[in-house]
Fold this protein.
Amino acid sequence: MAYQVLYRKYRPQTFDEVVGQDHIVKTLLNAVHKNKISHAYLFCGPRGTGKTSIAKIFAKALNCISEDKIPCGECENCKAIADGSFPDLFELDAASNNSVDNIRDLIEGASYQPLQGRYKIYILDEVHMLSASAANALLKTLEEPPAHVIFILATTDPQKLLPTILSRCQRYNFTKVSDEDMKRRIKEILEKEKIEYEEKALDIICDLADGCVRDALSYLDEALAYGDYTLKTADLIQMFGLLTKDAKVELLIDMRSRRIDDAITKTKALYREGVDIKALTQDLIKIFKDLVIYNETQSERLLVTIAKEDADKLATVYTNEEALTAIDILIRALEVYRKGQDQLSYFEIVILKIADLKTDKKERPKTSSVFDEEIKLVEKKPDVKLELDEVKMKKDDIIAVLKTASREQKSQDVIIYERLRDFSFDENKRRYFALLKDTEIFASSKDMIVFGAYTESGAHQINDIDNNKDLYYFLIDEFGIDKMVYALGPSEKETVIRSFRASADEEFIPYEVVRYPKRENKDLVSKLEETFGKVEVIDE
């Protein structure tokens, strides 16, 4: 016997087997039991949500001869409808039978009495595809059909129907099937087929199906064939070009942390591996939506796409305003994709836009500050400890450094920005460009540069112990600037400004800046290898 695909094999045959649409099932059953049958029904809703299946089950119920359960699925009429041999059930695809002649044939056949059942039933699928003349030809019969005729019209686009047709039908609005209902149905099928599965794989299929049961079972069929009739998460990811949740979260953090090189490189690699850019864009929108809701409510149960740990991690680099702006950018990207644009190229633009989010202009440092005044150097105090994962300075210590700052020192250090862009093209040094691009020199003394970062995450990146140490040596090597580095985020900067102004006339304890250990001078070979890679010394 030929293999039958799952969505056909497990098409519901009774109302009990219908997934979702409980409100419609209840209404139709009540109508049958109380014999309150209308002459015309209109089933509207997204594809794959059960419109045609319920129409056939309703046809069974109207013609079932059982006295116990309606429809029973066991009587002669129910079986005939199930196998397509019932002479009084007519299914027409309005997309291919949409002419006036087709409708005239239908009307002529409707005048004859049913051959086997109680009712003659006409199911018109995609009825919005009827031509205007064909729809008008149907109107009179649809309004006053013979007593033995019932019309069931199905459409995914009711807005295209004539108002005169809409007014002649009882309308039932089908909804997308919930992930919970769909997951339960897929489990039932897998258990009947005696197939092993991973729970996470079911979530992926439900997500791909987006409320369409037929799509879900088609994806399931394909996945089972690929996985030798076991359902595994890894197989689904490989087959449909999907990203794991962790990879998506990591990509978003790369974007906001201005690791643009990493984000674009990863995206290109994923695209080569078959990842669907449109699907990825939609998934990122869902993640941002979860993040905003979680930030507003702190309710873990409202998280759908990501876990609490992921939301907490993303919240350190995205404010709610930034997340909402990112959603707008991603929605715009979906519109561009529909116009046939190069999806990969535009997604790279999306990465740049999200990386460059500046939602609150007040957070950006001004070109001048209260610390531009020249202040005399004073005594120093010991030591800053640098053993932490992130360099941390107390507010009073920062103020002490700022009180030693001068306009001249700052003017000299602006050379950093004049040459910084050159390093964006250097594979070995572009990360320094990424670290300092969204900053401005807030204040500069002879021992330290205090940067003002445009974002909190940018400040954290500079103060990371490894980055901080590398930046110190980078400034020495490239600019001859032998100073320690510290970065203030927008909120910390505002706090420091207020405290500095309040302490203008107060004495302060001087702060001694302790530099990182000096590196040994490299010999010529080491310097050449750093620039050109491995070199070979040839003795003459």
